[in-house]
Task: inverse folding
């Protein structure tokens, strides 16, 4: 879609202001029900769009993303704009600097419409943990959009934004993409800078694009990827233009399927679409091989040790001293002031954080505490090494690993909020890619007209985003 | 793995999260359930396995040790973000 819109803007068939106005109109019509956006920056978006139109008028060359409206998850800092991570604790926080990804998308004149909803600090799989609102699935508004990047995904699925950025720590781009029928990529760990992105699990977090096609995802990835001196974990730049690798042909590619993981707990409709898409890949000339990832079944417990531990360390900075909400601002506190700085911390975090964030902080603090570190965090890091070893073994035999993204389609709002463990199971197929650090993409594998969207997940070799994107592009277009 | 009320109190102090009596009971239940789930990992033999911290195996990333000046706009935003301040300084409760 991005290329077509770009052509229209360049040829003068449509201005960026017209396109932006059109999308703001869609937001006005749909967002009261979908609730994808936390902040809408209409004035700034229109001003930026006018600047792109002026460049076109002057005959200047513009980037593919220039003038195209997008949305950013609200854990990505945009200087001078409110950035909440959907937490009361950051209700009034204004980012004093831009995230590197923000700089990069603004640097190519993309139009940022606003900031999207998420589970508080990205902790959740449904956006029901947002302190502000629950984002609804645009396909069926009784259902969740998934999470934690539910707002970004829903904004794309509803046509409010052309593309969006999300973050993915254990599936937060892919699971909602599966639920809402979009294409969402979690790049290789280190491919995209995390600077200016409110950290969750630092050894797992990645920023990635969400769009309606592999081509659009590729176009966005080319612009946000690359080394950043502000993120010591970011990988060397490749300067790849990912959109140039979409050959529309995967003849000879080897796709591994871990059938032993797919025996139970998968809904019939998901299984049916998944099996049909395996057949489609065969017809496209790929070979399907059975593979085994013996330690993948330990992915969830490993993930739910490592992520809360890192979260508890990262969120120690939310202490209400330099920024954020002090508890005496909170109505439940009746204006009573804390007596000491410790009490101030305890109060600010008690009232500023929601239930799930606090649960994870407690868990992470416990598993990192003296006497338990070896039994939990260290053990989890070792099993994580075995999971990576499984992937290294599998990639000697195959190029890609294929699974459903989720075991079932989007669930109803409120269906899983009472039991944290059941909610955690939503991430069963997605967390392993974060633990192993490999790139992974979710894309629709059933026909749009046939009920709720179902996503397939392809995982690739480290830093082989171009291969993944070509595999999905081929599936979409042939 | 069953946590006691005292365990939960201690964790809440370490995590700097205030809790009500009701919270303590809930955390006892929720955290114990999740910790029991973690016991599954004991099945895995990890003797002689080196744990992973950084997944793509990068080592020794250096940068210059120099302060970067924030621009005036950024500085102003940071000051405006302070929940309580006086003469450009952050106000906090007494530490001692």
Result:
């Amino acid at each position: 879609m991005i290329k077509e819109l770009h052509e229209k803007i360049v040829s003068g068939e449509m201005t960026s202001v017209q396109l932006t106005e059109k999308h703001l109109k869609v937001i006005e019509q749909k967002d009261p029900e979908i609730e994808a956006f936390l902040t809408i920056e209409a004035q700034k978006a229109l001003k930026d769009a006018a600047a792109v139109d002026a460049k076109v008028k002057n005959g200047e060359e513009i980037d593919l993303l220039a003038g195209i409206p997008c949305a950013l998850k609200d854990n990505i800092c945009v200087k001078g704009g409110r950035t909440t991570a959907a937490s009361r604790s950051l209700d009034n926080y204004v980012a004093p600097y831009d995230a590197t990804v923000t700089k990069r998308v603004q640097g190519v004149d993309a139009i940022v419409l606003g900031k999207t909803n998420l589970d508080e600090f990205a902790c959740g799989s449904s956006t029901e943990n947002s302190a502000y609102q629950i984002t609804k699935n645009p396909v069926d508004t009784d259902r969740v959009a998934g999470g934690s990047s539910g707002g970004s995904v829903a904004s794309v699925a509803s046509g409010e934004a052309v593309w969006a950025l999300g973050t993915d720590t254990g599936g937060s781009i892919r699971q909602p993409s599966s639920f809402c029928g979009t294409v969402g990529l979690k790049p290789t760990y280190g491919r995209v800078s995390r600077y200016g992105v409110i950290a969750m699990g630092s050894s797992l977090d990645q920023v990635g694009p969400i769009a309606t096609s592999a081509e659009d995802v590729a176009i966005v990835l080319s612009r946000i990827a690359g080394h950043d001196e502000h993120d010591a974990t970011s990988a060397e730049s490749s300067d790849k233009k990912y959109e140039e690798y979409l050959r529309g042909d995967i003849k000879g590619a080897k796709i591994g399927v871990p059938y032993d993981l797919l025996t139970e707990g998968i809904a019939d409709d998901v299984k049916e679409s998944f099996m049909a898409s395996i057949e489609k890949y065969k017809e496209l000339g790929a070979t399907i091989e059975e593979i085994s990832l013996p330690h993948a079944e330990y992915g969830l417990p490993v993930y739910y040790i490592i992520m809360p531990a890192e979260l508890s360390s990262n969120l120690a900075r939310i202490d209400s001293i330099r920024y954020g909400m002090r508890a005496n601002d909170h109505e439940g506190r009746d204006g009573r002031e804390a007596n000491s700085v410790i009490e101030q911390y305890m109060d600010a975090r008690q009232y500023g954080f929601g239930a799930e964030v606090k649960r994870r902080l407690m868990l992470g603090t416990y598993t990192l505490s003296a006497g338990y570190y070896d039994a939990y965090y260290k053990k989890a890091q070792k099993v994580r090494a075995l999971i990576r070893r499984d992937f290294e073994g599998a990639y000697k035999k195959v190029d890609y690993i294929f699974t459903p993204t989720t075991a079932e389609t989007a669930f109803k709002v409120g269906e899983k909020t009472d039991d944290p463990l059941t909610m955690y199971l939503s991430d069963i197929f997605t967390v392993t890619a974060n633990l192993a650090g490999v790139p992974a993409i979710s894309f629709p594998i059933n026909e749009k007209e046939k009920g709720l969207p179902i996503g397939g997940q392809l995982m690739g070799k480290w830093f082989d985003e171009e291969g993944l994107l070509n595999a999905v592009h081929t599936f979409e277009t042939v | 793995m069953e946590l006691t009320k005292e365990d939960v109190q201690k964790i809440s102090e370490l995590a700097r999260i205030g809790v009500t009596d009701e919270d303590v009971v809930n955390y006892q239940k929720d955290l114990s359930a999740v910790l029991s789930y973690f016991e599954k990992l004991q099945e895995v033999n990890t003797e002689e396995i080196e744990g992973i911290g950084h997944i793509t195996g990068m080592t020794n990333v250096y940068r210059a040790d120099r302060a970067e000046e924030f621009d005036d706009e950024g500085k102003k935003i940071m000051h405006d973000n302070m929940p309580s301040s006086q003469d450009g300084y952050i106000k906090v409760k007494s530490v001692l």
Remarks:
- Chain B is about 40% helix and 5% strand.
- Chain B has a mean pLDDT of 91.
- Residues 50 and 56 of chain B are 14 Å apart (CA to CA).
